[in-house]
Amino acid sequence: MINRRNVLRAGTAGALGAEMVASQSPPAAATPPPDVAERVSRRDWELLDQALSSRSTLYRPGDSGYPPLALPFNHRYAGIRPAGIVACGTTRDVSTVVRWARTVGLPAVPRSGPGHNYAGYSATTGLLLNMARMKSIDSTPVPGPRSRTRTYGRIKVVHDAGTVTVGAGVTNGDLHPLLEDRGMFVPTGRCPTVGVAGLVLGGGIGFSDKMFGLTCDRLVSTTVVLADGDVVEASQNSHSDLFWGCRGGAGNNFGVNTSFTFQYERFQGDVGFYRLNWSLDSALPVMAAAQRIAVDTLHDKRFHLRVGMGTHGHTSDEIRANAGVNAIGQYYGDLAELRDILAPLLAIGTADERAANDASVREVTPGEASVLLSATTPVQQFAAKSAVLTSRTLLTDDQVAAAAEHLLEWPGSDNEDGAGFAMFALGGEINQVPPDATAFVHRDAVFILAAETSWADYDPPRVATANLHWLPEFYHAIFGGTPPPHSYQNFPDPTLKDWRRAYYGANYDRLVRVNRTYDPTNFFSYPQAIGT
After folding, report:
1. CA dihedral 504, 509, 510, 513 (to 10 degrees)
2. Closest CA to 108 of 530, 531, 513, 526
3. How many Å apart are CA 272 and CA 332, to the nearest integer?
4. Which of 83, 345, 496, 527 has its CA at 20 to 30 Å from residue 54's CA atom?
5. Contact 324, 278 (CB under 8 A)
6. Which tens digits make up the pLDDT trace of 72-116?
7. Are 95 and 231 in contact (CB under 8 A)?
8. What whole-number distance in Å separates Cα of residue 388 and Cα of residue 148?
């Protein structure tokens, strides 16, 4: 999406990031009244520290381990500083922490991994539960008639080959090596540092979701620490309403999830891969062809596509020179079939572009594909808006032209991730699930569109302001005053007005009922939390 680099760059951390973004930060995800944190005595903190096992650690401001854990992935929210951080190592310690926080009156907010939440909802001025130590990955094969084997071109897939249980600190990057090392696969996202917990709780899109479903569709069970500190195992057969809500209801709404069990597949063979690039001059034919292909292959679960346009740079000349259109994806089938599907796209562009794009279509192992398809979400500071596109709301030529024109008016920044939009194709197994079967309601979509802008920690404040003004203008240039009614809950937008229906549609009322059952006092709360 936009201009992505495959290696995560280290952002400016510590005091610099906090000072530069404090004025840009919206309200904290969980903000106690000003006097609450001060009322928590030193003795209270000591009691918490003493109650933790040796596998967990409490950090307070001033401790050497505090700054890197306090900093969220999106440095836009670095000014939100927790009163304390517990690096949690066990579910029992999570339960202890939740009970303590409730007793002293501090909000408790979980963060898996670096805290990628786009809207900063994994930041807090209360107590932060950092789950990164909970990294266990345990697999259980399921031999016999429960598994089924199918061949797709050069690859053989054993469906439902077993289950894998992962801790809440496991990231996409932790799971991807299973492809290379053990031939096992769970559908995950493309950003290696994103926590699987946040991914699955909000749905979970990636480059294998049409074939195997969303990450939340592969969930078998999850361990949840509730607001009163009790621990439950949610599945189809136990706490089924909570299990339903955990599959697409977004994180930190019902409790703290400490582990997840998924069905996994087993792979043998190769997949098709492609990476196509054009100048911005080809925006109209590329977007038209890509959308036709997505509609034509909506029910073909073997074909996966992400298409977008973007740019980066600081000056107008750099922004114009770097602007382009791109498409990337994979295919579970013969390479000749993939070339036939991509033919309309491969025919677009200059002779050099066509030659390079044609050469990019090749067979790779599933493990190689996971590396080639991986990319980070924007680093340092960024903002995003999303839309769920159905067959009735696909982009017209006029909308694409407006987007391309407005892209060239981007104010620029020193963040090489730049700005633009990407469209992630859905369909296949995703759309075979009824919209009320899980909390993830977007089961008739063709694409999820994400529009983003980014700026660097060391950019002056006027650059951040200009970027934050540009993004809604860019979104409006595409959709006008009547954008599509639905948005993706894992790309939360703090400026979205009717977020309840946009994220959850007709499922929102049931989510509220689940929330009232498991968290009746809204202990786990943030500006776009269920029930607020």
Report:
1. 130
2. 526
3. 6
4. 83
5. yes
6. 999 999 999 999 999 999 999 999 999 999 999 999 999 997 889
7. yes
8. 33
Residue 9 has pLDDT above 60, yes or no: no
The letter for the amino acid at 349 is: G
- Across 22-31, 185-194, 196-205, 257-266, least confident range: 22-31
- Tens digits of per-residue pLDDT, 436-491? 999 999 999 999 999 999 999 999 999 999 999 999 999 999 999 999 999 999 99
Cβ(420)–Cβ(310) under 8 Å? yes
User: How confident is residue 154, by pLDDT bands cut at 50, 70 and 90?
Assistant: confident
167 within 8 A of 355, measured Cβ to Cβ: no
Residues 229 and 98 sit within 8 Å (Cβ to Cβ): yes
| 237 three-state secondary structure | coil
Residue 234's H or E segment, with its range, is strand 231-235
Q: Which helix (H) or strand (E) holds 184?
A: strand 184-185
E strands present in 78-180 = 84-87, 108-111, 127-130, 137-141, 148-152, 155-167
374: left (phi over 0), alpha (psi -120 to 50) or beta: beta
Question: What stretches of 196-334 show up as alpha helix (H) in DSSP?
Answer: 196-202, 209-212, 240-246, 283-296, 316-322
* Residue closest to 161 by CA, chosen among 255, 41, 306, 266: 266
Q: How far apart are CA 77 and CA 17, in angstroms?
A: 9
